[in-house]
Amino acid sequence: MTAAKSENPALEAAKTADIVLIPCRRSFFEVDAMSWTANLLKISGKPGYVVLNALKPGSTKIQGDVVKAIEAYDLTAGVTHERCR
């Protein structure tokens, strides 16, 4: 569907998907923007999972805080750890 024919391309994409994976870093702004995404998923009726990235191994306090903030939006968060080279 082209942008001219779709009122909200993100909503159209979510409606067509089986599940929605949402990449997210640990920043306040990205977690705060999750409310928009959570509402979009409720409208689409599709499950969404947040993939937390750019967390350093051992950053359990930050990780826990971010996961709690994401769960407040009724989303499930998973964590990936990147290796710094």
What would you say about this model in short?
The protein is 42% helix and 22% strand. The protein is of the alpha/beta class and 85 residues long.
Average pLDDT: 82
Strand content bin: 15-25%
CATH class: Alpha Beta
Give the CA-CA distance, first to last residue. 40 Å
Instruction: Give the assembly state of these chains.
Output: single chain
**Overall number of structural domains:** 1
Q: Choose one word for the global shape.
A: elongated
Order of helices and strands: HEHHEHE
The chain-level structural class is: alpha/beta
The CATH topology corresponds to Rossmann fold
Radius of gyration: 14 Å
Number of extended strands: 3
Largest sheet: 3 strands, parallel
Number of helices: 4
Q: Ranges with pLDDT <50 over ≥5 residues?
A: none
Question: Numbering strands along the chain, what is their spatial order in the largest sheet?
Answer: 1-2-3
Annotated CATH architecture: 3-Layer(aba) Sandwich
Helical proportion, percent range: 40-55%
